[in-house]
Amino acid sequence: MHDRSSSRRLATVVRALAVGALTGALALVPGVALAHGGGPSGHAPRAVNHAPDRPADVGTSGPESSCSSSTAAALRSATPTLRATLSDPDGDALRGTFQVRDGRTGRLLWSSRATAAQASGSAHAVQVPEGLLRDGRAHEWRVQARDAKGRTSPVVRCRIAVDVTAPGLPTVAPVEGAGAVYAEDAVAGGIGVAGDFRFEAPGTDDVAAFLYAFDGAPAQVDVVPGDAGATVTWVPTSAGPHQLTVQAVDVAGNVGPERLYRFTVTAAPTAPAGARWLLDEGQGLTATDTRAGTTLTLTPSTTWADGMAAELWGTTTDRALLLDEADDGASTAGPVVDTTGSFSVATVVRVDADGAPATVVSQDGAAGSAFTLGTSTTACDEELTTCWAFAVAGTGGDTVVATSTVPVSVGSWYGVFGVRDATSGVLRVDVCHLGTVDEPGSPSSLTGADVSLDVAAGSDGPFRVGTAQEGSTPWVGAVSGVQTWGSVIDVTRERLICSGRM
Hints:
Strands 18, 21, 22, 24, 29, 30, 31 and 33 form an eight-stranded antiparallel sheet that branches. This protein has helices at about 1-25, 310-315, 490-500; strands spanning about 55-60, 65, 75, 80-85, 95-100, 110, 120-125, 140-145, 155-160, 170-175, 185-190, 195-200, 205-215, 215-220, 230-235, 240-250, 260-265, 275, 285, 295-300, 305, 320-325, 330, 345-350, 360-365, 370-375, 385-395, 400-405, 415-420, 425-435, 450, 465, 475-485. The protein has four domains: about 1-50, no CATH class; about 55-160, Immunoglobulin-like, CATH 2.60.40; about 170-265, Immunoglobulin-like (Sandwich); about 275-500, Sandwich (Jelly Rolls). The chain is mostly beta strands and about 500 residues long. The longest helix has 26 residues, at about 1-25. InterPro entries: ConA-like_dom_sf, Filamin/ABP280_repeat-like. It comes from Cellulomonas wangsupingiae.
């Protein structure tokens, strides 16, 4: 009897040791845990099955789009492929289930069969059947993973908007303000004389870009958010007939029909070309006129800095002249503007000092500057101590000054436009306040009041940036670009420049 009792006690001890050893070993196995009650005196341990991970790399193909639960991705297909990568922490094989629901009500429209079981980390995809998604409607699609034991992952929800309707036929219109106006089926301009063309897509509110080609050379221009269209500049290199083709592209990628626009370039210029200095060289002592080839020569003390687009919007290629010493500035060898006729001058500048009159651009005349564009401290409205001013000399020795009510603020960027209309006998100054990084302004310019000037004095002296004649009233700040025209520019041209398209 004593031997039997001892044997039973010994067997119990051996079993307890075996269960303890097994429990310790299982605790070291990833993905395995003891169930409640497991242990030397409980039931045998069992593995815990973890739920699959949240689906990753979720989106569509045919066309490509990424998943967003808040902003609907525009798709130019009613039968896109829905895709997701499914993973499991236990390494188990997984199946995927996809659903499509009404974007407004959430009503279930379609549920796929479970995809074939694949190893953890594999991509799963299904194609939405025809007739399910409706053009112009928002939908939501969902994906969820499931393992062989029935555990499911979190559900991922994605919003899409089907758009399979292409934009309509775009309009093309020549824009005044460049060197020439190339009207359709007409003869104008000349070799090297730039022209601007405005593209719009009436009846379409989601145009993202325009595909265009001058004489078959393909190009694309994107539409700035909030704008109804886009404007491009073209410089002819040959005379004779030319053609422009334009197509609108919406946010979903649908491409509309092609608009054909024909015009003819004359062999010799018929309109003043003006000048256009982007001031993006960033180094050296000269700046190139991209329109007519007139060179600006910098004084030795003049340096370079970030331009308006670089400082406000991070466009690293945009540069500017930095005028912070008394002898800073730049000038041409001869006149650029015919001051006896209609002309316009534009510049994008930053104000670094206030309290004294200062000149951004000017052109020398016989007895002083034929015109100046900058700031004044004597011609302003009563509520302003410093104001933007455009002064043009008359033939009788008098100088007429037009001013703006847009305040001058140190540290801010501005687009400033001096406009002289010889036909109407008036001049004005328009200004847009572009602001600073911390306090951005608006690309919309404020049109100044017309001031009468019947006849303006002629000018055969150099064009200057940063000073008036003989270096007087120097500008303190940065100049990010300068343009001139032998015509009156309109508000469309001003808005483009104030949007960074110098």
